[in-house]
Amino acid sequence: MLVITEQNIKNAEHLFAEYKNNIPIFQSVLDGNYEGSIYVDCEVKPTWAVLQTPICFHFVAGKIIEKKILEDILFNRILSAQVEKQLVVFSPSDLWRPLLESIFEPRKGFVVPRKMFKFNREKYQMAWDEESKTLENVEIKTMKEHIDGYYCKNDEWVSRLLVNGKCVSTCSAFMVGGGYAEIDVKTHPDFQGRGYATLTTLTLIQKLLNNSLTPCWSAWPFNEASHTLAEKVGFIPEPDVNAWIWDENECS
Fold it and tell me: Which end of the chain offers a freer environment for a tag, N or C, measured as fewer CB atoms within 10 Å?
């Protein structure tokens, strides 16, 4: 088992071609835009890979790995290197399910269906045409800047909505790779329910599209506000994707 070096990181990229979701999250590491590690069996011609991102989301790919090898990578190497003692592991297909069950279930880990959404340009345009009429009543600044907390090596697009000079809603392209951008939205609790998140997100999406980036959206099943906002700004639901989770606070 090896940790692939930066100059050979593209040798493992083909192993992730089976994924149809979460593309900007793992691709941001493959493209070298975000910190991360890739464990492989061979650096030049790998047959399997485990990709570690800086946000506790990790991805298996290629040939099914031996149980003891994957256990070692996840719990002895990746988990020990993280400040937050949590693992969220994705696989490209259900073929990995027996292996992941055998690793997570004895440790009281569990599986959660993560909600996935696909961007629809026509639906977005309808929302933009309707909501952008109100943009003249608010101040939104969009620029490239460093995003704290996501270990990004480059500046990324961020839109901020201001009320009386104070930022109350932020939408950022927090992971970018392969021509895609994962979206993250935050609105101050005192200003929620006023449509600010919608306006901020629509503005950011417009900037992403103008820069040849396709926006992506995913959320946990309990975050209904995120599901509603996603559909409001131009996304359509896709089949859920299983996330295998182990959390020190919940599983110990």
Answer: C
Can you give the pLDDT at residue 1? 61
CATH of the domain at 180: 3.40.630.30
Q: Could you count the other beta carbons within 10 Å of the beta carbon of residue 243?
A: 19
Q: Domains in the chain: how many in total?
A: 2
d(CA 242, CA 236): 18
Reported residue count of the chain is 252
Same domain, 24 and 44: yes
Alpha helices by DSSP H, the chain = 23-30, 67-71, 79-81, 97-104, 121-131, 196-210, 224-232, 248-251
Strands 37-40 and 2-3: antiparallel
Q: Is 29 exposed, middle or buried (0-12, 13-18, 19+ CB in 10 A)?
A: buried
Rounded distance between C-alpha atoms, residue 21 and residue 115, angstroms: 10
3-state secondary structure of 207: helix
CATH number of the domain residue 53 falls in: 3.40.630
Closest CA to 183 of 143, 226, 154, 244: 226
Name the residue range of residue 46's domain. Answer: 2-114+243-251
Check whether residue 61 and residue 110 sit in a common domain: yes
Is 219:114 a contact under the CB 8 Å cutoff?
yes
Cα(18)–Cα(15) distance, integer angstroms: 7
Distance separating alpha carbons of residues 69 and 102, to the nearest angstrom: 13
